[in-house]
Amino acid sequence: MSNIAFGTSVEDATRDSLAAAASAGVRVRELSELAELDEVYRLYDSIWRPDPKNPPVTTELLRALTKAGNYVGGAYDGDELLGACVGFFGAPAEVAMHSHVAGVSGAARGRNVGFALKLHQRAWALQRGVTAISWTFDPLVRRNAYFNLVKLAAVPTEYLTNFYGLMEDGINSGDDTDRLLVRWQLDAPEVAAAAARRPRAITLPAATIALGRTADERPSAGRSGDGGTVLVAVPTDVEGLRTTDPAAAKDWRAAVREVLGGLLADGARVTGFDRAGWYVLEHAAKGLV
């Protein structure tokens, strides 16, 4: 195990943010002008293709959020907005924020623009005394699970069933909106290490498979075990399945809800996510404290 210490100060966070932006070839900055906020609205509209009656954000809402001191950040390549992130403050006693929505243009995929955005948000929050940020993501989307749990070192805290209700857009249509709520403890050593691009390596241990994956991309029931390490699989590409095999996508939603949601409700902790598509959980033996 490495004994290298990574800094958790505002200065360290700012340095890591600037390094991530440079690596992605973007400039990330806070946005507040009306024209900038309208760019964010139009970018999100191009990513999600939402029902016009229910967009992820509106320009007017973004204007109100920024006027109240909340966070809207954008990543630019020259004059082109490639990604944006929106967050707002939580209850005062929590010294926390909720990151409501973040998105990156499809043309910028693979450049780590999302990583640069989140590190900018982290530095911005630490500058204001905020020590934790929460957000939700779809537990079936493998790349998002890896990004959130490994690259950022966020920690799942709750499984939320059909959290947003029906969403008629280009990504979520036809599926329930189950989400994992995660907490990003900004001053935690593991988060600082991830921000410095030294995330904790995840290796699959000998473990009980609570939910597996068949060769034809169907969920395969395993067993819960009596404690210890438990693995829960997700599909390779659930977004593709929603188009090519909607029944399989629904089967995955139901299976992950039952197994992963059940394990979390039963006190298990997610300790990592393997790039091959496995949640790694530690589950105390029943009857033991």
UniProtKB/TrEMBL annotation:
MF annotations from Gene Ontology: acyltransferase activity, transferring groups other than amino-acyl groups
Domain of life: Bacteria
Record InterPro entries: Acyl_CoA_acyltransferase (IPR016181), GNAT_dom (IPR000182), GNAT_N_AcTrfase_prd (IPR038764)
Keywords attached to this entry: Transferase
Keyword Transferase attributed: yes
Residue ranges of domain N-acetyltransferase in the record: 26-189
Protein name: Putative GNAT superfamily acetyltransferase
Organism whose genome encodes this protein: Kribbella voronezhensis
